[in-house]
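Ticket #4471: structure output looks truncated?

Reporter: J.K.
Steps to reproduce: submitted the chain below (306 residues) through the standard prediction queue, then opened the result file.
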Amino acid sequence: MKIIKNLQDYSPKTPLALSIGMFDGVHRGHQTIIKNLNIAAQNKDLESAILTFWPHPRTVFSPSDDLKLLNTIEEKTYLLEKNNVQHLFLKEFDEAFRNLTGEEFVTQILVGKLNVKHLIIGHDHTFGKNRSGDFNLLQKMSSELGFEVVQVEAVDFQDRHISSTQIRNALLNADITAANEMLGYHYSVSGEVIHGKKLGRTIGYPTANISVNPMKFLPKKGAYIVDVFVQNKQHKGMLSIGTNPTVDGKSLSTEVYIRDFSADIYGEAISVNFRQFLHDEIKSDGLQQLIEKLDEDKKLTENFEF
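Returned output as attached by the reporter:
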């Protein structure tokens, strides 16, 4: 997959089949769009492409928001490439771009710069200043400018449209099963293993403290059964998101106990997939009660069918 960060540097050699959007999560709804995109590209002798925005436009509209996303840019890039997208345009949502009307965006960017011949959008997609662009505008302009446009219907889960917001809500409620079903894969976090307080090793449960990207959306505080991927191997694990209230912790941490693992992995990359919620964050009455709860969690993790 070719990644283009500056549209000015792009000179189209082959016309494009393209879709536009944030694609946060690259969930099953997005995957349906991409599947249609790839089919159209193959049938019409085009190349498939996604135009997305980084950083997120909300950092321009509402810079004070504490924005959290389902994917880091690295994760999104990996997922789009895994879904066989050939070109990824990462456009900065600057003031000049923000002020383009819907018609200007189509004329100057989609047709004039990218040579789009087949455009696929989601069921509720709008674009341009004051959301002046929509499917109706695209239909009108497509015949004038020589491109096709298709609108893909939403994919439903439990009688509701799958969306990044619905997935975040499921994760906030620790409904890992629903979140993973809507995503079409296991939700994950990754990062470098950093030094923590090293309390776990004193009670028989050494943990790897993960440095998570500050823009990454984390599920509800609590304990989870996870897959752990480290040093090119997969392990069972128990992950905790919280502040360690038993020892009066203050800062939020993401720590994972890796079953049957004892190697020194400080500074190494680690990734975990969420499989099942165990329980809310608990403040135990002392370390002995904490150990007993960890023992219970370990048994549930060992018996979990991965």
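Triage note (M.O.): checked the attachment and the full token line is present. The two ends are 31 Å apart (CA to CA).
Status: closed, working as intended.
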